[in-house]
Amino acid sequence: MATVKILYNDTADRLERYLKNHLEQNKSEGKSVQQTEHLVFLDGMTQDFFQVQSDFNTRGNNALHLIQSWSPQESKQLKPEDIHAMGIEMANQFAPGHQYVVQTHTDQAHHHNHIVINPVHLETGKRIQNKLENVRTLREVNDSIAKERGLSVLPPQESLKRPGPNEKARRIENYRGKSYIVDLAQKADFARGLATNYDEYVALLSGFNITARIENQNITYFYPGREVGKRGRNLTPELDKPALEKKFAHNRERLGLDTPRALEPLVSRRSEGLTQPRTEILEQSVIPIEEIQNAKTQSIRNYCQKEKIRMTRNEKGQTVLLNREHVEIGEYSWINHRNKTQGTLIDFVANHRKTSLLHAVSIINANPKLMMLFQ
User: What's the pLDDT score for residue 200?
Assistant: First the structure.
């Protein structure tokens, strides 16, 4: 599957250093690298680009960076010289009359071309502008090159639109595997299914090392290892403030938290072979909240595999318990579709081990000292 993207904010000097370093590293390892220089040499590319742009007195980005990639499956089938030839064809069709350098990298599972283009035409001085139509043109050229060689391409953009994380993240996941945006949305969706207020919501997210900043009008999520946050409305409407507050109210109503009730014992009730979600009781106890949140955010599926609890997939593709197909098993939560109860790994372990919620937390966290709190 061939994909291509264009980066307007790369600089020629950074790209020149990067491509030179790649050449030197491969040379030291005795490996050859496919490279083509058109109307410019890599050594001195930055200065040449700058000179052309100065001659025409034009300002803007001093380099365009195209990355043309293939899926790991097709990368294994293609020769480096074939991949390189497609990069040259891409540069010639997208930017005829422009200086460029094409370098092919095969050191990753998805082989790819780095195509560095001077955005200013050598003769006319016309600049390639940062416009959406150029992205469309680039995609059309790339698809045409791939199809001519019998290679697959991404489906039309319209078919990839769906509720949930934005389309770009879905496209990344479809092509390369797990996207951090999709992972962020899935974990936030798990947290919203259990939280009854923002404090609980933020605490649950912290169990995944995700930070949430609550503002007057917005909520911003920060994924571990990422400095730039994602607004909730850019992930999915359900993760923005209005929808979250409605979900919190629904969760409070479902749990009966809007009416006074006595503190119940730390023992789970059972129905249809699974516990009803009672972990909110733990949060009223002396157990450290960090222990509870850590236990809540452990994988139920991993526990089932470890304990040899058999699972299967139903006709909808959902993971369910074998012989109890009404119990759907998610990564971090379960739901009993027969009696409409749901919960986390804490409830699940309490039922499986026929023990209290407190003991379940101590089992999950491998912390037997917790039981001393109630001895």
Answer: 77
Rounded mean pLDDT for each run of 10 residues along the chain, 375 residues in total: 75 92 93 95 94 91 91 89 96 95 93 95 91 83 90 61 53 57 85 81 79 86 87 88 90 64 33 43 58 83 91 89 90 82 84 78 80 52
pLDDT in tens, 9-54: 668 999 999 999 999 999 999 999 999 999 999 999 999 999 999 9
d(CA 350, CA 82): 58
So what's the pLDDT on residue 257?
62
| Count of CA atoms in the C-beta half-sphere (13 A) of 251 | 22
Q: Long-range CB contacts (< 8 A, 24+ apart) of 223-232? A: 223/180, 223/181, 223/183, 223/184, 225/180, 226/180, 230/181, 230/184, 232/188
Beta bridge partners of 312: 320
Which pair of tokens denotes residue 339? Answer: 């009696």
